[in-house]
């Protein structure tokens, strides 16, 4: 049916920040609240999809009709996404994955001294880039959190990571970004189409974005 275009299809969404442990009591993270990703998962479920939400640590309620897999670090998120990737129709990477983790996780709490201190960082795996390399017929949707040259930087990520769509947000825009209930984004497709959206609630925006993706991919017409 037209109102459930994702019925029988599996959608995987990632949301929230990751936490990279320094020692038993400290970690490195970012300001993602998970609101954008949880809204995307809720929208996918409401369009009929079997929805898997892979979530970093957030304080949001589990959306109705969605299977939630809780993870902590970028490495955990990578494993969880990998396990769900092969038979997914759409994968949406809303999570703000840490690009770096402490090179070493101390097993005991690091003691303070009067000296300054340095934490050595190592790169995490770029999950989305890896999914792009493995892509068969999955529709791969990334987000780009930018603070300058928003469109060009977003398009660069779309191409580099072999995506079908990228949802670009200027995270300095007062109408959106990390933590807020609203967002301002542009949806860019690999075919070169642009859909700029003005500030709207993340919940509403999520449905608008998914419907645009469904339409561009023709998923609304090949369903009986
Ligand atoms: O959670 P909220 O408070 O609602 O905020 C929403 C948001 C601003 C976090 C969201 O809209 C958003 O932009 N998410 C992506 C944040 C991000 O990490 O962007 P990026 O430009 O650094 O990364 C680009 C893409 O690569 C993202 O899809 C990201 O999930 C992915 N990535 C990045 C690094 C990494 N190691 N692995 C990845 O898969």
From TrEMBL:
Its cofactor is Mg(2+); FMN. Binds 1 FMN per subunit. Residues 11-224 are annotated as: Phosphopantothenate--cysteine ligase. GO terms for biological process: coenzyme A biosynthetic process; pantothenate catabolic process. One of its GO terms (cellular component) is phosphopantothenoylcysteine decarboxylase complex. Its EC number is 4.1.1.36, 6.3.2.5. This is Coenzyme A biosynthesis bifunctional protein CoaBC. The keyword Endoplasmic reticulum does not apply. One of its GO terms (molecular function) is FMN binding. Catalyzes two sequential steps in the biosynthesis of coenzyme A. In the first step cysteine is conjugated to 4'-phosphopantothenate to form 4-phosphopantothenoylcysteine. In the second step the latter compound is decarboxylated to form 4'-phosphopantotheine. Residues 6-215 form the DNA/pantothenate metabolism flavoprotein C-terminal domain. The gene is coaBC. It comes from the Bacteria.
């Amino acid at each position: 049916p037209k109102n459930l275009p994702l019925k029988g299809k599996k959608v995987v969404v990632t949301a929230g920040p990751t936490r990279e442990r320094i020692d038993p009591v400290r970690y490195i993270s970012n300001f993602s609240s998970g609101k954008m990703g949880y809204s995307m998962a809720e929208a996918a479920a409401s369009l009929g999809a079997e929805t898997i939400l892979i979530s970093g640590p957030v304080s949001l309620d589990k959306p109705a009709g969605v299977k939630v897999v809780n993870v902590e670090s970028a490495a955990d998120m990578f494993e969880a996404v990998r396990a769900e990737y092969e038979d997914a129709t759409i994968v949406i990477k809303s999570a703000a994955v840490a690009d770096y983790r402490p090179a070493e996780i101390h097993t005991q709490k690091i003691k303070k001294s009067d000296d300054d201190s340095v934490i050595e960082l190592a790169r995490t795996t770029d999950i989305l880039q890896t999914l792009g390399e493995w892509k068969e017929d999955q529709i791969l949707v990334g987000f780009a959190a930018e603070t300058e040259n928003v469109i060009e930087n977003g398009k660069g990520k779309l191409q580099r990571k072999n995506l079908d769509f990228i949802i670009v947000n200027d995270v300095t825009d007062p109408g959106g970004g990390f933590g807020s209930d609203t967002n301002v984004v542009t949806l860019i497709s690999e075919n070169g189409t642009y859909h700029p959206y003005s500030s709207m609630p993340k919940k509403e925006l999520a449905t608008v974005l998914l419907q645009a993706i469904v339409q561009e991919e023709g998923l609304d017409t090949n369903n009986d």
